[in-house]
Every structure is written in structure tokens, then in C-alpha cells.
């Protein structure tokens, strides 16, 4: 038996229980991973609360790093003793887990387990947002909400590496300062300033090429008002609640805007694509272009406290659980 966080009925952080589970042995095409670090992300709260539907009981979590302890028949992607990280959820808030071997990403020597657990979802999200959803380059000015969050801090550094002009938003003076040290040219405190007017002012009176928004209800439709004609609104989360239903004609009225709701899994549908995206991310981290800040560490048994901190917007950078 090993320990895991289980959810038997959806609700607030208090529904998470630290319990014994039986893991078993890997079958064909599978590997048994002993977790050494587990990433915590806002999407985990959507599954726990029931906002995203899944079967119960539920083990939350979507990313982790660890060591291969056993492999099933036919596994060629990894071997016993390999250090790996992966995205596959929910199900990572546990000491051990059986995972399909083709989902496991071998870790290079320059990436430690804690960093790996903190970047699978956040770093690969930044990768597809910047490199594929909207291919950012030096000619673009972009706005990123929640700039001091886990994705935001990676995004800012990567976007600046691509020579874009990068504007962020954050909710406190401390978060503003943190984001400014991670690639952002400007960061707007949305509690003190109208981010729409200020972003346009910072861009010399011109509207922006693209807005990346994981906040949702509180920033819509202001995010649309920042965009120039034919600009793109990328909504990839809803930490303040879902965007309410709206007349799609608003996109026409505001300048024939593009709008997309991407997901990491759709952008990485196969192992080849996933490994290529991870390799690009690992190279930038190993080269010092991107630094990853793990600002919160909780024991696995204290996952409730981790979710409470996340949902009250008390966190910055990455949060991990330690088994």
C-alpha cells in the first residue's frame, strides 16, 4: 500500500483525504513510477471541485517526476532506474503510480526532479502558447494575465527571449516586481489601474497583437478591448470563473478578432510532438534562458493547504508536493 490524496465527493479543498491505495504492478506497455515531486496547478482544483467532470473517487494532479521502479512487457521507451517526468491526469497526487510508458519523458542531467515536476504542465503550456497557438516574434506586443503565476513567469522569460514586447498584469506590488524580474517589459497592477487603458498607453497608443488569458470571467471582455483588428484572444484557463455566454458578433464588432480555447493535450497528441516540445523547454532551462522558481513546497499530506493557497491567489511561481 502507498499513500495518495483521494476525493470521494467533489467540493472545496476540505474534500481531499490522505489515504492508503493499492497500486499493483505494471502491465504491458506500462511503468511503475515512484514520485519524487508532484506539480500543483489550477486545473487540479477544477477536477476537485467538479468543474471538470471525472469519475470518483479521484486522485487529483496532472504532472509529476520520479524514478522508474518496474516496467511491463514490451516497454522500450524507459528502463528501471530512469529519471522521468510526465503529464497524465488526473492521478499524480500519490507516492507511486502506474503510467503508460509512451507518456514518460526521460530527464536530462541538467533538469532536477523538482524543476521537472514544476514545468511539465506550466512550461509545455508556455511552449505551445508562444510557439504554436500564436507564433510570437520581435514584431509583436503581447499581454499576459497573471504574470506572476507559474505559467506567467516562464512565459515572460521565453517571450523576451523571442524579442517580443511583453506586458503582464498582476494583483499586488510584490507580484508586479516579481514579474518584472522574469522578462516582462511592463507589468500592470490590475487592482490599481485599468489594464485596458494602461496596456494601450504602454504600447504607444496602439492596441496589441495577442492577449493570453487564464483568468476568465474577471478579465473578459476587457481582454478583447486591448486587441487590434485581427488580433487574437487566447483563453486557456478560468481562475476567476468561466467566461459567461456571449454573442459571437462581439468579435466582429471589435475588429474581426480571433479567439481560441487551446489545451496542452490537443497540441501534443503523440509522443514525437511531446518529446520535441519538452526538448525545446529543457534546452532553454539548461541554458539559463528560463529560470524556474519553486516558491511553495508542501508535503503530499498537506495538499489541502496547497489548494487553499492557490485558490486564494497567495502563491507565486510554481507549487509542488513532496511525497
Automatic annotation (TrEMBL):
| Stored CDD domains | QOR2 (cd05286)
Domain Enoyl reductase (ER), chain residue ranges per copy: 11-321
The protein's UniProt keywords, in alphabetical order, are:
NADP, Oxidoreductase
Identification of the protein by name: Quinone oxidoreductase
Q: Which SMART domains match?
A: PKS_ER (SM00829)
EC number(s) given by UniProt: 1.6.5.5
Q: Name one GO molecular function term.
A: mRNA 3'-UTR AU-rich region binding
Q: Does the keyword Oxidoreductase apply?
A: yes
Identify the InterPro entries for this entry.
ADH-like_C, ADH-like_N, ER, GroES-like_sf, NAD(P)-bd_dom_sf, QOR-like
> Which Gene Ontology CC terms are recorded?
cytosol
Q: Which PANTHER family does this UniProt record tie to the protein?
A: QUINONE OXIDOREDUCTASE PIG3-RELATED, QUINONE OXIDOREDUCTASE-RELATED
Tell me any Pfam family this protein matches: ADH_N
Amino acid at each position: 500500500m502507498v499513500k495518495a490524496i483521494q476525493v470521494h465527493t467533489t467540493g472545496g479543498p476540505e474534500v481531499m483525504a490522505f489515504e492508503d491505495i493499492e497500486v499493483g504492478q505494471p502491465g504491458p506497455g506500462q511503468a511503475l513510477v515512484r514520485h519524487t515531486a508532484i506539480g500543483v496547478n489550477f486545473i487540479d482544483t477544477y477536477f476537485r471541485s467538479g468543474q471538470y467532470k471525472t469519475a470518483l473517487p479521484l486522485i487529483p494532479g496532472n504532472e509529476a517526476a520520479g524514478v522508474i521502479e518496474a516496467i511491463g512487457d514490451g516497454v522500450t521507451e524507459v528502463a528501471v532506474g530512469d529519471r522521468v517526468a510526465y503529464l497524465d491526469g488526473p492521478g499524480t497526487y500519490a507516492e507511486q503510480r502506474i503510467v503508460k510508458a509512451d507518456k514518460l519523458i526521460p530527464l536530462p542531467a541538467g533538469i532536477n526532479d523538482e524543476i521537472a515536476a514544476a514545468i511539465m504542465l506550466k512550461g509545455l503550456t508556455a511552449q505551445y502558447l508562444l510557439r504554436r497557438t500564436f507564433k510570437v516574434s520581435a514584431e509583436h506586443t503581447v499581454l499576459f494575465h497573471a504574470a506572476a503565476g507559474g505559467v506567467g513567469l516562464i512565459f515572460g522569460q521565453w517571450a523576451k527571449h523571442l524579442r517580443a514586447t511583453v506586458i503582464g498584469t498582476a494583483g499586488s506590488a510584490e507580484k508586479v516586481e516579481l514579474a518584472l524580474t522574469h522578462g516582462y517589459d511592463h507589468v500592470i497592477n490590475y487592482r490599481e489601474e485599468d489594464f485596458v487603458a494602461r496596456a494601450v498607453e504602454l504600447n504607444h497608443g496602439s492596441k496589441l497583437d495577442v492577449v493570453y488569458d487564464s483568468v476568465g470571467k474577471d478579465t473578459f471582455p476587457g481582454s478583447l478591448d486591448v486587441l487590434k483588428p485581427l488580433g487574437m484572444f487566447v483563453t486557456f484557463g478560468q481562475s476567476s470563473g468561466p467566461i459567461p455566454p456571449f454573442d459571437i458578433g462581439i468579435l466582429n464588432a471589435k475588429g474581426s478578432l480571433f479567439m481560441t480555447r487551446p489545451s496542452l493535450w490537443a497540441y501534443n497528441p503523440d509522443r514525437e510532438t511531446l518529446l520535441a516540445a519538452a526538448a525545446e523547454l529543457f534546452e532553454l532551462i539548461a541554458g539559463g534562458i528560463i529560470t524556474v522558481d519553486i516558491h511553495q513546497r508542501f508535503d503530499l499530506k498537506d495538499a489541502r493547504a496547497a489548494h487553499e493557497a492557490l485558490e486564494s491567489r497567495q502563491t507565486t511561481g510554481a507549487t509542488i508536493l513532496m511525497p
